[in-house]
Design brief:
This protein is α/β, with parallel strands linked by helices. The protein is built from nine helices and seven strands. The chain has one domain: Rossmann fold (3-Layer(aba) Sandwich). Strands 3-2-1-4-5-7-6 form a seven-stranded mixed β-sheet, sandwiched between helices.
Length: about 240
Amino acid sequence: MTPEQWSAFLEVHKDLPREGPGAPEDVHWALGRIGMSGAVDVFDAGCATGGDTVTLAQALPEARIRAVDTTEPFVAHAQARLAPFGDRVRVELGSMAEPGGTYDLIWCAGALYFLGVTEGLTLWRDALKPGGHVAFSEPVALGPLSTDATAFWEEYPQITDLAGIEARVSAAGYRVLDHRMIVGAPWLAYYDPMQARIDHLHTINTDPAVTEAMGACQREIDLWHAAKDEIAYALLIVAPE
């Protein structure tokens, strides 16, 4: 993106509660499946505006959480949201490739593809405490993709089925403990606020770059609605072998 396009993207995404599909139930499922509680250390890799960070902080009241993202406005938004949790939750501008410590859990919602599943898990191995886990969500094909679903994923041609994701996990020397599909309502939790933002901007915007960004986001939303039953993330819980 050019600086102008990036600025326009941020204007459309301003103050959205999430920057990807998901729901508190996904976080609670993962924590319950792992059996996590107490004074654990958690790294939220690519936290965006802190939607899942809030749930992690609420579900793990004794945990120490470090959350990072590379986008300054997202970090500022997340810092404001997480301020009530005090010093035990740190939200910082930083790279998920640099965990900066060791953790019982690395949580990564819809962002691991920036590093690559195999590459990211390999990189994070030394950042996991003994017995530690990684929970991450990744685009997944539930079956042959329709024309609308193919168009939806056109910027992520490396999408595979679940077996393909599991193969990338195995290539990093990890095992899959469990998985869960993120379909339907968790996507609405992302797209409904975005649609409301687009509708609002239509009433006030005069910037052509923002109009173009709005159009791109609207197309994404429309494609999701056209193929919502086949567009999914897989949320996987994995651990080193």
